[in-house]
Amino acid sequence: MPDAAVPVATGPLAGLRVLELGHFVAAPFCTRLLGDLGADVIKVEPPGAGDPVRQWGARHKGQSAWWSVHARNKRCVTLDLKKPKAREILLRLVAGSDALVENFRPGQLDRMGLAEAALRAAKPDLVIARISGYGQDGPQRDRAAFGVIGEAVGGLRHLTNHPPGTTDLPPVRVGISIGDSIAGIYAAFGIMAALWKRDAGRHGDGRGRGLDVALTESIFSLLEGALPEYGALGTVRQPTGGGIATAAPTNAYRARDGVWVLIAANSDPLFGKLAAAMGRPELADDPRFRGNQARCANVVALDADIGLWTAQHDGAALEALLEAADVPATRAYTIADCAADPQLRHRGMVREVVDAQLGPMLHPGIVPMLPGDPGAIRWAGPPVGAHNDEVFGALGLGAGEIAALREEGVC
Description:
Blueprint: E1 17-21, H1 26-36, E2 40-45, E3 59-60, E4 63-64, H2 65-70, E5 74-78, H3 84-95, E6 99-102, H4 108-111, H5 116-122, E7 127-132, H6 147-153, H7 156-159, H8 178-199, E8 210-214, H9 215-220, H10 226-233, E9 250-254, E10 260-264, H11 268-277, H12 292-297, H13 299-310, H14 315-324, E11 329-331, H15 335-340, H16 342-346, E12 350-355, E13 359-364, H17 388-394, H18 399-407
Parallel strand pairs: 1-2, 1-6, 2-5, 6-7, 7-8
Antiparallel strand pairs: 3-4, 9-10, 10-11, 12-13
């Protein structure tokens, strides 16, 4: 049976209040992570349609199924920040918040009358996390950007492709908004670092801080040794398809029934186990494959040998053979495989949650896992303005005042 919503905040961040002026993916993903761990997230959206992500993805009962997860654990309110009364209310919300997360273009909040000085006048020790395409300064700060642009400028899109000369197709997208999500993770990490510096007992200084997270830099920071290799050797790392340039064998191999099985046997002991499982133990002593450097130099021949073997077995049989041999391997999961996986289910990473609008829904679990204080999915993504009365009422606004503000288009 699906779990009912848990209204009371639990988790290590219970008591922390975060104000989200986010839209699309990056800032909302940051606050979802914080909300999962117990933070009280108040999400501010424009009246009417709200966050554009409400219209994204597959529809269920006329609504975005993604929104159920994207805005879970958030109290959603509406404010038209172009109106002075809305800005006044926002600053009252700021006064009661620990952190604010936004992902407008640099300078846009300033033009709305919500510059850092105004925010700090309302809450001097506020932590402000700004997420943007290129960062808050520099010659490209004003350029338009989404996650895919961050992935391109950060060097990832060049690498998500088959080896040069093997295809004329464009480099492929990772398949999710990874640039936005990585930036959101860094923002969440940065917020906690700033709060630690502000509040950590004798180490805390009581000061508010600002974070500057760029989509481009978030991806660029992931590129392993690509930059030092280029700086020292002039080497430009190239795409390698399903393989890894520095380790072999590590690739996806097609089974007899068309299933792709990933095999990572890139240490000498593991390669010996793989060779034995293939019925060809002599491969481990073949000079072409003795040691990782030799295997990398002869990876085309090695992958061909492994591919001939995998093509003789169905995917499930291959997985069983490789598991018995203690070789890291698995089929490439679809989302259906993920939803059914007993390990993910056991760990609470596939959860059935009751969405008040959509009914039973599958949600991903909470990461990181903190045993004993894990946080909770308290509710699924709510309707536009669902918490206006609750949140604005807590500021001292009466029902009549809120109704009048709604009539004026303020909220």
